[in-house]
Design brief:
Layout: E1 2-10, H1 15-30, H2 34-54, E2 65-73, E3 76-82, H3 106-113, E4 116-121, E5 129-136, H4 144-147
Antiparallel strand pairs: 1-2, 2-3, 3-5, 4-5
């Protein structure tokens, strides 16, 4: 089975739970194991929160959009979150945050929850960051999509 979707979202806090609910609903309908769905939904929430907080042009004060794309293909789910922010500095290293830190834990959480993570610069014109991560899927018995 292959499912993919893409959302163009405003950089507003309300967009984060929307993306998360769509991902959970898609995976539930496809029959993905709930633990895998949960891990990916938390990772997606962290990536979206980073796009909302850091993904715009601070100089112009604009509230640009960001994009979320999810692919469930065979045994793997890949998620990409692309923003239009200043991008990460060349050679930027993601370092673990202190356990009591209020901020800075998102990328580390994504790395813990996903099987493979790539953080890079948005291709093409302009600036921006792409956070891409994937995870091997496990399936529950009797997925609703197959029994409908």
């Amino acid at each position: 089975m292959s499912i993919w979707w893409s959302l163009h979202l405003r950089r507003e806090a309300a967009s984060v739970p929307l993306a998360r609910r769509l991902l959970i609903g898609t995976m539930e309908t496809a029959g993905v194991d709930p633990d895998i769905s949960y891990d990916l939904s938390v990772a997606l929430s962290e990536a979206c929160a980073n796009a909302v907080e850091h993904g715009g042009d601070a100089a112009s004060g604009t509230s640009e959009a960001y994009r979320v794309t999810a692919y469930l293909d065979g045994e793997k789910c890949r998620i990409e979150v692309t923003d239009s922010g200043p991008g990460l500095a060349l050679g930027h290293e993601v370092r673990p945050a202190r356990p009591d830190a209020e901020h800075g834990r998102g990328l580390c959480l994504i790395r813990e929850l996903a099987d493979h993570v790539h953080i890079g610069v948005k291709p093409g014109r302009g600036t921006g960051t792409v956070v891409s991560f994937d995870k091997l899927l496990k399936w529950k018995k009797d997925p609703s999509l197959l029994t409908a």
